[in-house]
Amino acid sequence: MRRQLLRGSVFTVIIALLTAFILVFTLFDGMYVSMAKSEITNVLSLLSASYREGEDPSAYLRDSHKALTGNTPGSYRLTIIDAATGTVLAETEPGAAAMDHSTRPEVQSAIQSGMGESTRRSDTTGMEYLYIALKADGLIFRGAKPLYEVYAIRTTLMLMCIVGLMAGIVAALLRSRHWANKVVKPVEELTRAAAELKEGGGFARVSPGPDEIGVLGEAFNDMAAAQATAMYRLKEKQTQLSGVLYSILDGVIAVDERGRVLFFNDHALDLPGFEGILLNVPLHGTAPLNELHNLLMDTIRKGEAAKTTLSLKGGEVEAEVHTTCLNIEEKPMGAVAVVRDVTTLRKLEQMRKEFVSNVTHELKTPLTSIRGYVELLKTGERDAPTRQSFYDIIDIESERLHALIEDLLQLSEIENGRDDPRTMVAPLTQALMDMERRFRHRGESIEFTIQREDGILLQMNPVRLLQLLTNLIDNAFKYNTPNGSVAIRAKKDGEHCILTVADTGIGIPKAEQERIFERFYRVDKGRSRAMGGTGLGLAIVKHIVLSVGGTIEVASVPGEGTTFTLTLPLFEGNL
Ligand code: ADP
Fold it and tell me: Which of 147, 291, 319, 349 is deepest in the core (most CB within 10 A)?
């Protein structure tokens, strides 16, 4: 632009000056020639008027020429020609008298019309002349004026013109550079700032000025500031939104109206079969992604939210999908899907249902029995031994109910337990001594032994330790065989205590060993019930062990016996 401006102004100056000089030239030429014409015409009129017939033309011409030109005889050339013959009668230019001048165009015109003129180079003097011829009294009076003056002036004018042109060009260059700087510089600054703004330079500004470009600069600055504010708000919103989307534990995937992925969070990639999601391409590759793509496209087409369930990892994982249409001014621009892994939720739901049904069943059985015997007692006359046996059954069933409710309460307490085992200490020696007292006379044919290191302190609630030991030892007696044994061993091992409860009882088949820790799971229902079992003992044990960060394992051979091995954390603090 700067160059164009310079070029334009120089061109304009050249054109303007050239036009002016051509006009001046033309005017000057015209004026000079017409002045010369009238001057010569006047001289010739005077000559012809004052010439007397019979007078010597040469003498007359010499005197007149001298009178006219004084000291500058070269300024005029005069000739008297006989109009009839074309013979030169007198001539002020020496050596030209002998020439025949009748054929000259001005002479020819004068002979025909009384007056003639012509401009040409003289053969005699070699100079350019303006010739005028006037016919009077059979004579042609011809005057000629050299045009060297006009050439000299023309040359001077030409030189002036060149100097003027140069000066004009220099002035135009300087002026246009000044203007270029004044106009182009702010425009360049604006261009640079606009480019910077386009590249994301939110702080691009220009220096404002008083003229129109300055006002434009101010408007640009205002616009840039407004854009920076809008960008900042947008980024802030985007950060908030990203934060929200990333903090959602569900997979979130957004697509545009053609199904191309616009956004997805990390949790989406954690879902099985969703690892291949790519930005800017539609969801495809795996069955769940294809299914999700179709669902999203359906949502966009219908403009309605939708919900479905996806079966992932060959049915191992169940995911719930909610899709919503993204509308901008009521025009569907895409859709978003929220995918939630509901496998655990479903399992928990299932477990809860099973638990409720189990509890109901377990409560119902003794209650039905109690009600039945109460009815029997109320309705008929019974002898004393029969009544006694009914009372005994009612007593046993009540005891069973009580034990069941106790175990349920314990389980719920452990599950909801708020006590921090790290701050608690349970002396194992004392707990084992309690166990010995309690089970010493439990089965007379069963040998009960305890081997323990002294001074084992466990990091756990002492009440829970008693519950844990009671359940394990009670089972070891319950599922034992006559003349069997129950052996407890406790020893320290690093930061843990290894506790084993071993019996020589009926044992547990391999396939059942994993399930015995489930609530209400019994290997032999009849035997458990007959022994007053609730089916919750090992579930309670497992919950207690896990709550203190320990482990429990079972090793059993049917017909030979069972050993439970537990690792429990030792108390590390000071008492
Ligand atoms: P229960 O009240 O029926 O004893 P538990 O939860 O304590 O319930 O035990 C679950 C099941 O595990 C029992 O019904 C029994 O079949 C089996 N079991 C537990 N301990 C032993 C053991 N020491 N020997 C053999 N079977 C056992």
Answer: 319
